[in-house]
Amino acid sequence: MLVAIGTNNKAKIAAIQNIVNQYFENVQYVQVAAASNVSEQPFSNEETRQGAINRAVNTLEEVKGDLNFGLEGGVHELDDFLYCTNWGALALKDGTVFSAAGAQFALPEVIAKELRAGKELGPVMDNYTKQRDTRLGSGAVGIFTAGLVDRTEMFEHIVKLLIGQYLFLVKK
Q1: Do 15 and 152 touch, CB atoms closer than 8 A?
Q2: Residue 88 backbone phi and psi in degrees, to 5
Q3: What is the extent of the structural domain holding 7?
C-alpha cells in the first residue's frame, strides 16, 4: 500500500505513520510538500478544513497513493476567544475525500493578539517560548497543555478518524 503524506512536517508525518502502521501492513510512505491553497495562517474552521482537503487532493494528484493525507492547523474565533483548530483529510484514487477535525483549545490572549495582527502561529510560538520550530515538536498544544498533549498526538486522533471512515467505507 502506498501512503502519500502531503507535508514535510515531522509531527504530522509521525502522526500519520503511527496510526497507519496500526491498521495496515507492507506500507510504503512518500512525503511531498503539498500546497494548501489557503492562507499561511488559516483563520476559520472552514479555511483550515479546506487547507487539509487541498493538501490531500494535491498529494493525490502528485503521488497517486492509495491513501493521500493532508493535515492543516489554523485558528478560529468563538465568544471573543481565539481557538487553535486542526483538520485532516484523506483522498482516495476514486475521488472520495474524507475530512475530520480534532481537539480545539483557547489560545492565551497574548498569542491571540499577535495572530489577529496578521502573524502566523508557528513563529509567534517560537518567539513566545524562545525556542525554534515548536510546530515540528510539541506545538502550541504541547506548550499550553503543560506537555500533556503534543502536536503528534493531537493529529493522531484526526488520522484515526480518517482511517476509521475509510475502513467503514471498505467494509460496506
Answers
A1: yes
A2: -135, 160
A3: 2-77+84-104+150-171
Question: The C-alpha cell of 31 is what?
Answer: 512525503
Distance CA 3, CA 166 (A): 13
User: Burial level of 126, CB count in 10 A (0-12/13-18/19+)?
Assistant: middle
What residues does 23 pair with on adjacent strands?
A: none
Domain count, the chain: 1
Task: Please check whether residue 71 is in contact with residue 135, taking contact to mean a CB–CB distance below 8 angstroms.
Answer: no
For 114-167, the pLDDT digits (tens) are 999 999 888 998 889 888 877 767 888 888 999 899 889 999 999 999 999 999
Question: Whole-angstrom Cα distance, residue 151 to residue 142?
Answer: 6
Whether residue 129 lies inside any domain: the answer is: no
pTM over 0.70: yes
Residue 37 is assigned to a structural domain of this protein: yes
The residue behind cell 495572530 is 115
